[in-house]
């Protein structure tokens, strides 16, 4: 089983949307996928309850109680973990211990950039990250042309780490989520350009 942690210390950066999008993409390729919700708000679990019949199944894993971290159904190919906001300290270390990769979404605002910088600095000291056993990748999330995107580009340049993908802001994401769906549940050609933005992320996970 491969485990992917979607995490940042900044709330509201789109962690859940990234988590459900990746879970649906992996399930759509035929994998057996679990979605672990470690956020007390339980947004990912609520999304799964609205998921309709006829789409690729995703198994719900409730990690909203930290004592349940690490408990998952057997025979999963993938486990996507939606971390809580304000992830720091022991809880960050415990979730990273369950992951083979960390994906950190970053919004194009000065507050998100600053918070992400501090988050990356903090997890540098986590043993599995320090020893290179867990890779940390970034996603530029909800981007639009303008000063915010320029600021985000400058952040990545200073950091010396380019994001895996630039994901543009689109109303399709919340509209689909309200139906228990995600981008990769929709076969229509109109969604193809949005799916293409996720291709580098999925390639990095293989």
TrEMBL record:
Pfam families the UniProt entry points to: CbiA (PF01656)
Domain CobQ/CobB/MinD/ParA nucleotide binding residue range list: 4-181
Signal sequence coordinates: none
InterPro entries (UniProt xref): CobQ/CobB/MinD/ParA_Nub-bd_dom, DNA_Partitioning_ATPase, P-loop_NTPase
The name this protein goes by in its record: Chromosome partitioning protein
Species for this entry: Amaricoccus macauensis
């Amino acid at each position: 089983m491969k485990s992917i942690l979607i995490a940042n210390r900044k709330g509201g950066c789109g962690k859940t949307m990234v988590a459900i999008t990746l879970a649906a993409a992996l399930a759509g390729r035929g994998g057996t996928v679990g979605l672990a919700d470690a956020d007390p708000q339980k947004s990912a679990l609520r999304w799964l309850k609205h998921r309709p019949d006829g789409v690729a199944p995703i198994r719900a894993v409730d990690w909203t109680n930290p004592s349940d971290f690490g408990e998952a159904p057997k025979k999963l190919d993938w486990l996507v973990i939606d971390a809580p906001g304000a992830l720091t300290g022991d809880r960050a270390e415990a979730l990273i211990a369950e992951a083979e990769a960390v994906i950190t979404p970053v919004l194009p605002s000065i507050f998100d950039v600053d918070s992400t910088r501090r988050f990356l600095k903090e997890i540098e000291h986590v043993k599995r990250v320090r020893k290179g056993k867990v890779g940390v990748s970034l996603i530029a999330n909800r981007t639009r042309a303008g000063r915010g995107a320029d600021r985000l580009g400058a952040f990545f340049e200073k950091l010396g780490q380019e994001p895996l993908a630039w994901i543009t802001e689109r109303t399709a994401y919340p509209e689909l989520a309200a139906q228990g769906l995600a981008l990769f549940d929709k076969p229509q050609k109109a969604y193809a350009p949005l799916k293409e933005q996720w291709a580098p992320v999925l390639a990095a996970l293989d």
